[in-house]
Amino acid sequence: MPYAKIIGSGGYLPPRVVTNDDLAADLATRQIETSDTWIVERTGIRQRHLADPGVTTSQLATRAAQIALDDAGVAAEDLDLIIVATSTPDFVFPSTACLVQAALGSKGGAAFDVQAVCSGFVYALATADAFIRAGRAKTALVIGAEVFSSILDWNDRGTCVLFGDGAGAVVLKAADEPGIIAAQLNADGSQMKILCAAGNVAHGKVVGDPFLRMDGQAVFKLAVTSLAKSATDVCAEAGIKLEEIDWFVPHQANVRIINFLGRRLGLTDDKVVVTVDQHANTSAASVPLAFDAARRDGRIKQGDLVMMQGVGGGFTWGSVLARM
Ligand SMILES: CC(C)(COP(=O)(O)OP(=O)(O)OC[C@H]1O[C@@H](n2cnc3c(N)ncnc32)[C@H](O)[C@@H]1OP(=O)(O)O)[C@@H](O)C(=O)NCCC(=O)NCCS
Questions:
Q1: Judging by beta carbons within 10 Å of its beta carbon (0-12, 13-18, 19+), is residue 150 exposed, middle or buried?
Q2: CB 149 within 8 A of CB 113
Q3: For the packed helices 20-28 and 36-43, what is the interaxial angle rounded to 10 degrees?
Q4: Rounded CA gap, 283 and 143, in Å?
Q5: 267 pairs with which residues across the strands?
Q6: Which of 20, 49, 98, 118 is catalytic?
Q7: Distance CA 19, CA 36 (A)
Q8: Mind giving me the DSSP string for 87-113?
């Protein structure tokens, strides 16, 4: 049975950087108070990249995908699977993956979106791995991409300071050696209300609430307990000890969640990849963006064992263990 090996990665962030001070000044014009100090203390976030109006998720995804394909030395026409993880698709349909496929000039392979919010990339990666392991695909492109700013209520200081826009991608190829060695995906739909954007388009108008709503403390508690268990379980499944992990690439939502998990799992800070300070929470894009950053600066190397974790709305969570 073939393994799925990560052979390239790429990231793309829209050029507009908004610092906490910029955001605080903007919110102040609407009599909403926040500060760099509050945001940094509670989340570790210092800035985020925001897409300009009119920029779409498929555009960000295509930029990241092209960088990943170049990095892998793979031509777009050789892809037989494209999966895009996103909660902010360009359209109701067709899928963002089909738009990316067309933009890349690829044709004929499978292309579809995965909707698991901030766990989306990990879900998509595990899905692509299953396709390759089953012999249903040989060369796959997996992307996490979001224009999350489009679903934020910019009058809700409890959420709008937390998120950013961006895209990250990896290219997977069938190989004789690992590769992705284990994956676990989980969900608890009964917790749907603690993090949701409970609106849709029907009969020509938006029905329900189109903005992201969150019970931050409930999300915090569930995130740390579910991710700690998921990490232990996925390592047990792979017959790996936690201390064998070279790099931990968690979802980048909050540095306090990341630090708590690192401590709980006994992983020292120098094994944990953190980009939340620079990117804020880019939902499905956060894990591939962090992974790509650590690969490009030489931290993640050939042969390293990497654990990626996602957690988010649904409630969803999951882990993937990959040998580079
Ligand atoms: C959102 C989060 C940072 C809030 O931190 P917290 O310590 O739980 O803060 P609370 O929500 O209890 O709010 C504390 C106070 O800060 C205020 N506050 C909220 N947002 C604020 C902001 N941006 N600036 C200043 N004050 C703010 C609240 O109104 C509250 O004020 P009050 O005590 O007068 O009522 C934290 O709960 C969190 O990180 N949760 C997880 C979120 C997450 O990771 N989501 C994505 C998962 S995919």
A1: middle
A2: no
A3: 130
A4: 12
A5: none
A6: 118
A7: 8
A8: SS-SSSSS-HHHHHHHHHT--SSEEEE
Same fold, 3-177 and 181-323: yes
C-alpha–C-alpha distance, residues 120 and 157, integer Å:
25
Clarify whether 118 is annotated catalytic. yes
Residue nearest to atom 43 of ligand 1 (CA): 253
Spell out the domain ranges in the chain.
Answer: 3-177, 181-323
Above 90 in pLDDT, residue 186? Answer: yes
CATH topology of domain 181-323: Peroxisomal Thiolase; Chain A, domain 1 (3.40.47)
- Residues of the chain with pLDDT > 70: what percent? 100
3-state class (DSSP) for residue 221: helix
Q: Which ligand 1 atom minimizes the distance to the CA of 217?
A: 37
Q: Taking 90 as the threshold, does the pLDDT of residue 287 lie above it?
A: yes
pLDDT at position 256, please? 96
Q: Which amino acid is at 93?
A: F
Query: 3-177 architecture in CATH?
Result: 3-Layer(aba) Sandwich (3.40)
- Please report the atom of ligand 1 found closest to the CA of residue 253: 44
The pair of structure tokens assigned to 134 is 């089953």
Cα separation, 274 vs 40, whole angstroms? 14
